[in-house]
Fold these 2 entries.
Entry 1:
Amino acid sequence: MKKRKVVLADDHPIVLAGVKETIESTGLYEVVRVAQTSGELVGAITEHSPEIVITDFYMPGDENYGDGVRFINYLVRHFPNVRFLVLTMLSNRSLLGSLYDCGVRGVLQKSIDLSEINTALLAISRGEIFKSINSLGPESVLESTSLASERIESLSAKEAEVLRLFLAGVRVKDIATNLQRSARTVSTQKTSVMRKLGVYSDQELFAFCKEHRVI
């Protein structure tokens, strides 16, 4: 039986090694290339024309490709014949849902057992969309909602003020001017907001606030 060609992408060598060993142990897949940056991943897909790509959500990016949703969008648009499976540490339902909207075939959280990757690969190899109950199930919704409320309540008044203006589309330097604070102070407060809410990019911040109706 001809093995399906797979490209793996993650900036953590241990993750790459674990995933590679797991999927090749089935005898169904051949990892033809591993990549650790967005540029390397694009080059690997162009060179090897894999049927499947397993990629981390956050790849060290550059000005051409970026990372996160922007990069996933780029990949799906430019390589329509490739089936993409995304690995992530994120649990935000809105953000995970946006990945499916981009056109990826499956999303898996890194906290799952590695063997579930093979289950996902079988599904997307058949042309199906794979949705893990561990990342998108009803129980995680309740847990996420409760945890989100606690995180929102942990924001200070000044942090909440910065968040409100940022969500309104005001740039950090203009927020600083409006609030009569230094740009460094506002940037630090925005970073604190993201840390408390458990998000790692502006896209995640907007997705979190939209999902939990933070005004």
Entry 2:
Amino acid sequence: MNENSTHFEAVVVGAGISGIGAAIHLKRIGVRNFVILERADSLGGTWRANTYPGCACDVPSALYSYSFAANPDWSRAFAEQPEIREYIESTAGKHDVDRHVRFGVEMTNARWDAARSRWQIETSDGDITARFLIAAAGPWSEPLTPDLPGLDTFTGEVFHSSQWNHDYDLRGKRVAVVGTGASAVQFVPKIVSQVSSLHLYQRTAQWVLPKPDHYVPRIERSIMRLIPGAQKTLRSLEYGMMESLGLGFRNPWILRIVQKLGSAQLRLQVRDRKLRKALTPNYTLGCKRLLMSNTYYPALSRPNVSVHTNAVSALRGNTVIGADGVEAEVDAIIFGTGFHILDMPIADKVFDGDGRSLDDHWKGSPRAYYGSTVTGFPNAFILLGPSLGTGHTSAFMILEAQLDYMAQAISHARAREWDTFDVRPEVQAAFNAHVQDALATTVYNAGGCESYFFDVNGRNSFNWPWSSDAMRRRLHDFDPNAYNHTGRSHATSPAAALNEEYSV
């Protein structure tokens, strides 16, 4: 890649697992003239940014990796952040991805130029153009921090879990933790013994299952490294187990049985009846993101912890005021409040040929074809986009299905000399109608809770309602009939694209 180039065949936004995977697939199909724009100074995406104590994956390590870059050396059944980041960087290095990255460069605007059939992209380091645009920033790139009344009057330390301040010494401090999602379940047990008091603000109790994590002995790692097929067999077994759990997300009665594990753990680890009641969810397991921990409940049972079963309503100086009016004076506030998942910031930076942004098109409800392409935005892809999230499998599995689809689409366009391809609006609408119909009976929609799966309009724009195998099948082959295109090859009939059948 010429560092002074201003036109590329493809521009990738983000150098996390999605961007790195996109780069590897582009190289596989012969695309060499591409660039990755990364606003940070290093690779890794969410696994670079999130360094909070206890940060780890909640999917078995063998599944939390690219299938083409198996890692036999995971030291734990569920890998921790430093090891995952090392794996990501190592994989990028082996595939020579680094030389395509422009670090410290942020995409500020991308506009489709219909007259020239290319993307006009403004960056913090000048303007560039591209034939293909690949948005790989992901849904976990922008932390969500609530705008609490009086927060500007707080004189203590404030940070989000994804922007952990390691220079701040928590020892002996009075700390408020706002939010009880995946990050809080991991970092609270790590800090509770350091702080003098911890006030946990929980709007909704979470189901927390036992985590079957353990150290992987060296001999087991040697087997993975030396015996042909061992790593693949382990990955297949873990995939099968997670898919068995996934069956419950489509049949909630199964998860009501599984959640008895969570109830049993809660009874065993929390002896105080009042606290146990406060920590008992009133919805079906899987309605919110599945959480696993062996240490979260014991941490909340410590005498220096107060669990507040309500949100924070305001701050007055260094006093946190709960929605129930109870006040707590603290020295620091840590937000474990997640990310801009469905209101992804990149959506107001990408514009169609008429100057309308993705946000303008979506009006609060993200929609795409297979979570990957959006009508009105030719030659563009969103990785880990809307309607692809599951409650049980690895982001890598979803990502690779998309990357194969993206690679086929680009190869198809190059081979047939298409200038542009744009998903037909009726095809996108039909797919999304199928998704919404199928979601109605899943635990995501019928589990009895509110979650980040639902957008501001009350529509589930996050989840895939079928099996992971169904996702892989549907994205296995690029169907040109689903797209309008311009270029030298003959137009194709849209009939096949509208007669798809969606299976579990």
